[in-house]
Amino acid sequence: MSAGCTKADSHVFKTSDPKRLALIMPFETTPLSNRDDTPGAVCFDCEMGYSTFGMELIRLTATVWPDGRELLDILVRPLGEVLDLNSRFSGVWPEDFANAIPFNEASQLQNQIPPDDSAPRLKIVDNPLKARQLLFTLLKPTTPLIGHALENDLNAARILHPTIIDTALLYPHHRGLPLRFGLKMLMKKHLDRDIQTGGDQGHDSKEDARAAGELVRLRVGEMWRKLRAEGWVKRDGGFFSPNGE
Length: 245
Prior knowledge:
alpha/beta, eight-stranded mixed beta sheet, two-stranded parallel sheet, 8 helices, 12 strands, 29% helix
């Protein structure tokens, strides 16, 4: 028997089977909304850690597309007992939970300004259902939800959303699925930007959400330049082909 690739205090597991995930927390479809103040498009990223129920949501971040303005950035207490925050990947550490501020719906959805050089204190909600409901306040079913390898984030939050833009599909691997390029590689190749440089300190879901948004903006710009060269025009809030349709 070969030695394990890593050592930990607890055994952990992950399942991607929707039926098993739904036993822990049911999936929910993005509800209809009559609100007229929801963003035109939202970038979205989650971080996950291990609990006694498997891999669970521990941080959820949403930003406005295309400007990257923060909409929501919260820590999430998982339903099961925490076994491993997966910090070297999630970027979420025990001290983040210890120093987190209880979320208050009346407060602004943004980080508290930290004193001096201390790290920002994120807000925290008691469970992933609350985190999902907060995200739903920013969405309609027709709101494009932007991210990278979104099936992981949607599974973590147990969300069924009909309108998504996934940069893993927008920039497909030349050898086809199931191979996919990572977000870090796409940012370096297409925008000459380095992300996820924290090493063992892990990822930053806000950085990843904004990075996916920037890749979408790049591709939209490329597509529009091509259409404009073909004679398309933008007029009165709409786009019209060369024959005026």
